[in-house]
Amino acid sequence: MIIMEKAANEIKELKGFLPRSIAYAGQINEDFAEGIAGLYKAVWEEREGGLSIKQKHLIVFAVACSSNNIQSAAKILERLHKFGATKMEITDAMMLATWTGGIQHFTDFSAVILKEMERLGY
Q: Where does the Carboxymuconolactone decarboxylase-like domain start and stop, copy by copy (predicted)?
């Protein structure tokens, strides 16, 4: 269990919170939880010459928007705010999401995201 706690603490530090998937996996099997924590670490850790945390969040934001996962996009928007994303970076990501997901998805996600952007002060 100490290994799981260490992995959980690393992810909390990296992401700012413990993802529910790791907590749920820990209730099932410690090795499973460590595996999921390892996936989070591999994806979100900054590496020399790689994408920054902000860039990674911009990408997953665009993917969430383009797949019409509005609830996830709104949560990621909060993370983008924390990591200093500009209004232009966010709107560029929204336009890219429209390009890949289609105008209907833009219509669906834009109302929620624009309202959330206003709440966050963009």
A: 31-109
Mapping DSSP to helix (H, G, I), strand (E, B) and coil, where does residue 47 land? coil
CA–CA separation, 82 and 102 (whole Å): 28
Residues 54 and 93: their CA atoms lie apart, in Å, by 12
DSSP state of 16: S
Report CA 107 to chain centroid distance, whole Å: 21
Break the chain down into helix, strand, coil percent, rounded to 5.
80, 0, 20
Q: Which two tokens stand for residue 48?
A: 């020399």
> Higher model confidence: residue 38 or residue 59?
59
Q: What is the pLDDT of residues 54-92, one digit of tens each?
A: 999 999 999 999 999 999 999 999 999 999 999 999 999
The reported pTM is: 0.82
